[in-house]
Amino acid sequence: MLTRAIFISYLAAACCATPLVRSMQVHEARESIPEGFVHSGSAPQDTVLNLRLALVQSDPAGLEKALMDVSTPSSALYGQHLSKEEIFVAPSPDSVVAVHSWLADNDIEAKTISPAGDWLSFAIPVSKANVLLDTEFSVFTHEETGKTSIRTLAYSIPADLKGHIDLVHPTITFPNPFARLPAMVMPPKVKPAVNITSDAVPASCSSTITPACLQVLYGIPTTPAKVSSNQLGVSGFIEQFANEADLKTFLTDFRPDIPSTTTFMLQTLDGGENPQIQTKLASKRILTFNIPSVSPLKCPQSSYLWVLTTSYGQNENTISRSLANNLCNAYAQLGARGTSILFASGDGGVAGSQTTRCTTFLPTFPSGCPFMTSVGATNGVPETSASFSSGGFSNFFAQPSYQSSAVSSYLTALGNTNSGKFNRSGRAFPDVSAQGNNIEIVVGGGTGLVVGTSCSSPIFASVVALLNDGLATAGKPLLGFLNLFLYSTGALALNDITTGNNPGCNTNGFPARARWDPVTGLGTPNFSKLKTAVGL
Ligand SMILES: *[C@@H]1O[C@H](CO)[C@@H](O)[C@H](O)[C@H]1NC(C)=O
Ligand SMILES: *[C@@H]1O[C@H](CO)[C@@H](O)[C@H](O)[C@H]1NC(C)=O
Ligand SMILES: *[C@@H]1O[C@H](CO)[C@@H](O)[C@H](O)[C@H]1NC(C)=O
């Protein structure tokens, strides 16, 4: 009987030129359109969608364990970062075969776009995507900005591919409507501090933050890094890029002690470019904060970044859980490799990424991911928390054990304040902070002051890069994923910021307090204390 049944089903499969109708199953859905967007009709059938498909990765639990082992200062494996080959992400060969054969049945040829083979890409018209994913792509308009995007509220995959497909993007993840060019705000208020003459913080630093201010405020040495493989990555998206002429002006004006010919290396990926021409400047105050559309792991270089800072993100509720998890695992991979990953926490206080309407607090992504370091902002001298500094609690990611003691102390002291407006059991952020108000920059040939955690993350990242330089010179392992260090031996090496709050959603937000708080995290760097804490 068994033989015959198999034989018949084989014949049935072989006889038909058209693929068998497969049973479809909803794979991802969102309950509602994210706040601020409205549905404005079906998507034009012939619009071509560039779809990305992520295959299920092989061993996320193994990856997490490896990350924790190499990042916990008291662990025997501390600092023993993994090689690219040792990282657990390649999908199983079964998944690769099953998914490619499904796509081939639909006359779709997909390109593999990540080294581990876990991301595929293909372009198909809306009409075909609607059938393939048993969905209806629609046009959604963001009311405040008028920006439109083609998305859906749910999509399906063949039931037999569950366990092979992680997600298809862009589907239910909505874009950050506030993505825009960098804003040059105000002209410098005072003559900025350039050369350090004493340990005292120059008076001008109260209203204009320059590298010299940061050097005095945080005790950052002026001596350059020594190790040539020490790379600090600064990612740029949405028409924002590093500009050679601006860097030269900045170095000439604000770091006269180092050659103005100092430059950067460029690594473009996923169709990115760096045209060196800044088209226009937006008028808003706050630096753009937007989600990376690809994982940094796609970076093809064989050497790896020691530190990577990113100033882009968006509200967690606009992103699919699968995508959030997938990107968060990518940061875990980089951390296991030895890269310190830092992100700006967001510029809308408890309202997240610049949202004007909210009833409950809006955590930002990727700050809710427990495998990266989220950086909030401080303001002024002496430092207080910056009111725009986003902080709070993820609704997607549970609170990791490395921060549970710090966070529960805070929550106990907080009492019933903001009760019901945030998720007490979520991953809490930011982890640390740095100056983010009135930061002197050069962009588009002009010099001026900007505001945002987009400034704080690279400032903290530069401190990490200098600590790594000392560690590498001493033959010691790099810091890699920072949080287990920060919440243990690192905590006392930070300046605790205890005043201010981060209002939003018609509340005063969270108050900063002694030790960890969801405005400034554990605090800002004290370089000499950090040096001792990392064993230098
Ligand atoms: C800062 O020091 C450099 C030499 O190190 C000097 O050329 C420059 O004029 C000084 N700038 C200011 C504003 O004092
Ligand atoms: C860092 O901490 C040490 C020890 O408490 C202190 O003496 C020093 O002034 C601090 N450095 C800065 C720049 O605040
Ligand atoms: C709160 O966070 C927990 C832990 O991550 C999560 O399981 C739960 O769904 C979240 N609650 C809400 C209402 O989002």
Characterize the structure shown:
The structure is a single chain. This protein is of the alpha+beta class. It has 2 domains: 134 residues, no CATH class; 298 residues, Peptidase S8/S53 domain (Rossmann fold), CATH 3.40.50. Helices cover 23% and strands 19% of the residues. The strands form 8 sheets. Strands 10, 11, 13, 15, 16 and 19 form a 6-stranded mixed sheet that branches. Strand 10, helix 6 and strand 11 form a beta-alpha-beta unit. Helix 2 crosses helix 7. The longest helix is centred in the C-terminal third of the chain and has 21 residues. It is globular, with a radius of gyration of 24 Å. The N and C termini lie far apart (73 Å). The structure holds 2-acetamido-2-deoxy-beta-D-glucopyranose (3 copies). One 2-acetamido-2-deoxy-beta-D-glucopyranose binds next to loops. Its main location: secreted. GO terms for molecular function: metal ion binding; serine-type endopeptidase activity; tripeptidyl-peptidase activity. Keywords: Calcium, Hydrolase, Metal-binding, Protease, Serine protease, Signal, Zymogen. This is Peptidase S53 domain-containing protein. It comes from Pycnoporus cinnabarinus (Cinnabar-red polypore).
CATH architecture of the largest domain: 3-Layer(aba) Sandwich
Task: Give a count of the beta strands, DSSP E runs of length 2 or more.
Answer: 23
CATH domain topology of the largest domain: Rossmann fold
Strand percentage, roughly? 15-25%
Ends distance? 73 Å
Question: Would you identify the regions where 5 or more consecutive residues have pLDDT less than 50?
Answer: 1-17, 278-302
Strand-pairing-aware structural class: alpha+beta
Rg computed from alpha carbons, rounded to a whole number of angstroms: 24 Å
Overall average residue pLDDT: 88
Distinct small molecules bound, one entry per kind: 2-acetamido-2-deoxy-beta-D-glucopyranose
Helix content: 10-25%
CATH homologous superfamily annotation of the largest domain: Peptidase S8/S53 domain
Instruction: Output the number of helix runs.
Output: 11
Subcellular location: Secreted, Extracellular space
Cofactor: Ca(2+)
InterPro entries: Peptidase_S8/S53_dom_sf, S53_propep, Sedolisin_dom, Tripeptidyl-peptidase_I
Organism: Pycnoporus cinnabarinus (Cinnabar-red polypore)
